[in-house]
Specification:
By secondary structure, this protein is mainly alpha-helical. It is built from 4 helices and no strands.
């Protein structure tokens, strides 16, 4: 009976062995994830390179640029006011837009 208990005690891993195996497993998986992410990043960087740009087209005449339709400022202000009021959960009456700049 003693030899059976001794055999069972020898087959059971100690606390330090379990901790060491857990830490090793975690770090090996983390290193594998880092390697996989670096490979995917390199593949995506190569895939995202833009194609060479074609020859630039001649610039349009200034008259053509002036003929471009200007947006209705009142509608633009109303749309921006409504979006801000919706986001803030308030009323449009409490919002005053002093200037609009194109970014």
């Amino acid at each position: 009976m003693d030899s059976l208990m001794l055999l069972a005690a020898m087959a059971e891993p100690s606390f330090l062995q379990v901790v060491a195996m857990g830490l090793i497993t975690v770090f090996v998986v983390l290193i594998c994830l880092i390697i996989i992410i670096k490979i995917m990043g390199a593949l995506m960087a190569n895939a995202a390179k833009p194609a060479p740009a074609p020859a630039p087209a001649p610039a349009p005449a200034p008259a053509a640029q002036a003929a471009a339709p200007q947006p209705n400022k009142q509608q633009l202000v109303a749309a921006i006011s409504a979006a801000i009021a919706e986001d803030m959960g308030g009323s449009v009456e409490h919002i005053r837009i002093h200037s609009i700049r194109k970014l």
